[in-house]
């Protein structure tokens, strides 16, 4: 498999993982309101959901194991996600008292999902 094929496979596997995670949030009653939302400053948030009165920003990571997936989240990426989350909240939050949280969703090679809620890393 050449690099272009590997890249395409990784891209589609990532999309599938995001869809699995979005479906998991929907099953527990959350409303997924945005996918792959991009802020003006380059940050991207994989999923944004409303879980009751909480605005949830979800980063999805996929790898062979949950541990390897978690290791793929860099501090640089966290900063960019944080900036994008602040921008989204400024535009779309219900008001200044809007409750928010950051979840890290890990998807392993077998498709099992582990969600770390309130992964306060910003």
From TrEMBL:
InterPro entries: Restrct_endonuc-II-like, tRNA_endonuc-like_dom_sf, UPF0102_YraN-like. GO terms for molecular function: nucleic acid binding. Pfam families: UPF0102. Belongs to the UPF0102 family. This is Uncharacterized protein. It comes from Paenirhodobacter enshiensis.
């Amino acid at each position: 498999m050449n690099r272009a094929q590997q890249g395409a496979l990784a891209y589609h596997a990532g999309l599938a993982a995001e869809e699995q995670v979005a479906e998991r949030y929907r099953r527990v009653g959350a409303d997924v309101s945005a996918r792959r939302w991009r802020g003006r400053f380059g940050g991207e948030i994989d999923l944004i959901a409303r879980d009751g009165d909480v605005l949830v920003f979800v980063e999805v990571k996929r790898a062979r194991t949950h541990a390897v997936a978690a290791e793929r989240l860099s501090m640089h990426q966290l900063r960019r996600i944080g900036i994008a989350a602040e921008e989204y909240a400024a535009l779309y939050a219900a008001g200044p008292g809007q409750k928010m949280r950051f979840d890290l969703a890990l998807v392993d090679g077998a498709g099992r999902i582990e969600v770390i809620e309130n992964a306060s890393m910003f």
